Amino acid sequence: MESVLRGIPASAGLVVGPVHLLRWEVPEVPQRIIAPGESDAEIARLHAAIARAQERLVTLRTRAEATAGAEEAAIFDVQLTMLGDAELVQAVEKLVRQTIAAEKAFDIVMLEWQQRFARSAVPMLRERVGDLTDVHIRVLSLLLDLPDHDPVDVPKGANAILVTHDLTPSLTLQLDRDAIGGIVTEAGTATSHVAILARSLGLPAVVGLRRASQVLKGGELVILDANEGTLTVRPTEAEIRDARLRAEADQARDEELREVAHAPAITLDGQSFVVRANVDIPEDAESAALSGAEGVGLMRTEFLVVGRAHMPEEEEQYRAYRRVVEAFRGRPVIIRTYDIGGDKLPVGGYPHEANPFLGWRAIRMCLDEAPIFKVQLRAMLRAAVHGDLRIMLPLVVTVDEVREARTLLEEAGRELAERGVSYRADVPLGVMVETPAAAVACDTFVRDVDFLSIGSNDLVQYTLAVDRGNVNLAPRYTPLHPAVLRLIREVAATGAAHDLPVGVCGEMGSQPLTVFALIGLGVRQLSVAPRAVPAVKRLIRSITVAAARDAVEAALRSSGTAREVELVLRRRLRVALGEA
């Protein structure tokens, strides 16, 4: 067995603990024929397994609601609905009466349903394939007397390293922060869902470690070094001692960072910066508000849609947005309208697209589905009464989209007024710059928006034509490519020329080297994972803008490769920090 497995660092940290191997996959089901007189007993066994699975899901839903909130917990309602579907159960019973054992009958029917859903022209049904798979695994495990591998079953305090192929939304909701010390997945990249989640939870994580579940057996003691992207299997006593010493040093640095968390972000040459937090779900708002963040630079709203059986109503959205706004006590909270489509499919009957990332998604979908969009806008206008709420539009490429959205925003306000509901009419409206088109033509937006926010994750993806979720392309996803840096510099310069705030809310804002580059490119506002706020502030307080600007100019004068740009910036950053 290899002693050191290598993947992609996704969330920094170092932890020593046992492997909890989560093989969340459909088990192999042997063919078993029953006697004609046994069908009633097999059907009873089927119903008993389904009932036990339903009980388990109800328990999981209750836990998820307590830890993540009712909106997130609603994902289990979909699976409960599937288990109670009369058509599905009757199809299985029909096969059992043809002398096929319950587990094989259930396996056959579920595979048929998954194929049907996967080929469907309706995105909602394609999105349900993952839920079908979860139900498939859960019931078969009961019928075959296999162990239950849900992450919540890890004992509290185990500090276990969860190793799995990928984390589905339902598995993610079951993570127990008191039991899991780190995460390893075979799929994913540094900007994938699981990476963003791990950073939000403050868990060390390595993704793209392709053969982990084949190499590991479960229970082994390992060292997860998510700073370097390595997993050391069955380490020596000396390696364990060294790892624990490094972990203690990391913890000491974290304590030091907490001292600067609430200090102003001002460079050594007197330039002030704004450091805000990204918020994924409302339940994170209170802790994010204590991180030292000066507001929210990006609140994602897809949690309201993905995995849900129904679109959220205005009141539910209003409560979610209000909770975040009130947690930050008057500081700015920028909420992004639905960024649905692509890998985040909405509820409803929408046409199949061969290339959804370049298709009908985000602002395009919202503008075309005005009634759904206005529900969200009304909820935001109502929540704005309670603080400094600002609205941000994703994937905008033309000013026409901004003007159409503003028209709908005004209509939403009038509808609230007609109902006699309190709302704020002067909510600032901004756009995310996520494509080369928006970056190059950002000057066309300046008269119609109140701020610009660079979504660096997608800007890198679209500029380099590299799918940021594809582990095979991870080495080609290079945020320091000169093309990306030049586009960011152009957007920052346009904002400065028109006195328009420009921020960055992607992962570039959280990493020291890319923060150094962003400062040199003229960006003055950053939005990062809450746990990254102190580190970003410390970096800002340790350098000068002049040093960062000179470093970027030197890097862009180099050979023109992302690698050379990175090397130049690293050398310059060490000098700026007095480390060279």
CATH topology of the largest domain: TIM Barrel
Mean pLDDT: 87
**Poorly predicted parts:** 342-350
Q: How many helix segments?
A: 23
- Domain tally: 3
* Beta-strand share of residues: 5-15%
SS elements, strand count: 16
The name of the CATH architecture of the largest domain is Alpha-Beta Barrel
In the CATH scheme, the class of the largest domain would be Alpha Beta
Radius of gyration: 25 Å
Overall geometry comes to globular
Name of the CATH superfamily of the largest domain: Phosphoenolpyruvate-binding domains
Instruction: Characterize the quaternary organization of these chains.
Output: single chain
Helix fraction? 40-55%
Biggest β-sheet description: 8 strands, mixed
Report how far apart the termini are: 39 Å
The neighbouring-strand order within the major sheet is: 1-8-7-3-4-5-6-2
Content-based structural category: alpha/beta
